[in-house]
Amino acid sequence: MIERLIEAARSIASDAPLHDRIAKSTGLSIEGVRFAIERCLETDPSEEEIATLVKNAPRFEKAYVLLSSTVFTAALRAIAVARAGSPSVVVHPSRRAPDFAEALVRAAGDPEITVARDLDIAEIDRGAIHVHGRMETIERIRAVAKVPVLAHGPGMGIAILGADADLDVPSAARDLADDVVPFDQRGCLSPRIAFVLGGKKERAEAFATALANALDHHPVPLGALTEEERVEAARFIQTVSFAGVVKKGTGGVVGLSDTPVLPPTGRHVHVVYARDEARLDAFAPHVTTVGIAGTVDLGIAPEHARVARFGSMQRPPFDGPVDRRTP
Amino acid sequence: MPESFDALACDLARFQRARIAGFDRLCKGIRDFERASDIPCVPTDVFKLTRVATFPEGEETAIFRTSGTTIGERGMHAMRTTDTYDAGALAFGRWALASDLGDRAPLVVSFTVKDADSSLGHMVELFRMQIGGGDGGNVLEGDVFDLVRLDEMVARAAFEERPVLLCATSFALAMFLEALDGEPFPLPPKSRVMQTGGFKGKVKEVEPRELRLATAKALRVDERNVVCEYGMTELSSQFYEATIQTKAPHSVYFEPPWARVVPVDPETLAPVPNGAEGIARIEDLLNVDSAFAVLARDRVMRVGEGFVLLGRASGAPPRGCSIAIEEMMG
Hints:
The structure holds two protein chains of two kinds.
Chain A: H1 2-12, H2 16-26, H3 30-40, H4 47-56, E1 63-66, H5 74-85, E2 89-92, H6 99-108, E3 113-115, E4 128-132, H7 135-144, E5 149-152, E6 156-161, H8 169-180, E7 191-197, H9 201-216, H10 227-243, E8 245-248, E9 253-257, E10 268-274, E11 287-293, E12 306-309
Parallel strand pairs in A: 1-2, 1-4, 2-3, 4-5, 6-7, 6-11, 7-10, 9-10, 11-12
Antiparallel strand pairs in A: 8-9
Chain B: H1 5-19, H2 21-26, E1 42-43, H3 46-49, E2 62-65, E3 76-79, H4 83-98, E4 107-111, H5 119-131, E5 137-138, E6 140-141, E7 144-145, H6 147-159, E8 164-169, H7 170-180, E9 192-196, H8 208-219, E10 226-230, E11 239-241, E12 252-254, E13 259-264, E14 277-284, E15 293-303, E16 306-312, H9 325-329
Helix pairs in contact in B: 4-5, 7-8
């Protein structure tokens, strides 16, 4: 049954009219939609990954899957995890961007997976609800649900650049840009802060410059920013201009300082020259993935976080939910 | 003739630009300032990241800190001297809270915090010593009220026919009312309440009007004597409702002559047309050694001679599952 979903994902991956609809509803550029499908849609997972996903899927007699918008490819994994643990699955796509999830369910043709655009949470009296969304949404659902709620809340990725003297900094920056670009950085795997180990400002500045350059020259154009992103971007730029350095280009904004700042989504990354690695700890509860380049002591990554090389942060193994924090 | 606000602001900004490298970076491309609105604003977030001060570390006589966020950041406002802060807080506090009392010093009681680094605690202590008679004090320790002490203080004020000036955070006030459980706790005639701050990070939230009405009823004070104050650690000036001195309605805050609240477009940071909603850019001439213009996270709108607070800026709900800044700040 999981293979059936994978096959469905493969079949819709090249559906051009679907790409257009996704671009329209998510605000991503059409190139951004294609890039996300090409890099993030798991159309070729290994048998071992699928076996692990099935083995660890939470078992319920019925599963309701509530999806969030923008990170449209996440529907595949979310539905697969639910289906692996339940004989019957009801998918409630995001109101704003339902296209991919609906197309996927249609293409899978699995009679035990149905789509419900309207869902009365309070009426659900058996099974479990898998919620993918903001904390506010999760809390709202938890307040009325009579069945277990498995929450997959918001998170973030962080990147760590090792102190290796022979590390190819421009190449690492290009790889990280490939992790920033998908979904215009609105995914929970998207890197927002990059720690440059070693505490050397010059090296961090070289990396920040290279990253700004890589974002500016990235072939996937930035989509439409939300009002909140534009507002927070103005504040981020004003803040970091005071506290450090800002590199603002057409493809994104990179800040640099000795203290971490959480930048807004929409291709904004803050580079920190970390004298004190303990600073990572403050972010740990929110971190879903850690990207690394060079030599990095993995002991500094939160235990629950996935770890990937730069360029692969958005492609974790298809072995369960991307977010390993307790649902 | 006194110098204009603009002239003082520009002098102050030049002074700060020459001494604070970060502010100088923010002024990149600006040759000189001709009016206050030319001066770039410093977001409150900056105070969490770096020191905003015109003088070297070690020369401060006080450091005020903001409450922390879920990632442990606390904003810091270093003061070379608190003299200017104190003079401004007293002058405008006296006007807003006690100018109708003449020579009769109120007994100042507070439900605030005792932390040495709280600017609110500092201000309330100043009120106790300078506006009040030096007696009174704080009766809140953590979440626990010292009701015996409060009773004694209020009884003494009543005996001496002195009004009480109760300074409290909104959260503490709500907690106190809950503890009263509907029972009255009458304060002496002409008593008044200064209410400040919101419910950030607290489980229970009460609407400001509801809290004001409940406070007036429980403490048997005139509703117009329940006055809201708006201030923040990053500033040296405070703003008040003017319901005791004027006929102005509640919810409209007034500035002292040395500060202005300018609603600005959150994206361009340019002033919005009069009557339109914007983010608070606060111009404060008393912020001598830090930042003349501070960009808050509060939405405001000018109304007549004052301004109204419209809540925290949150914008449209973010898309996707990447964590939002507000979610992380707690």
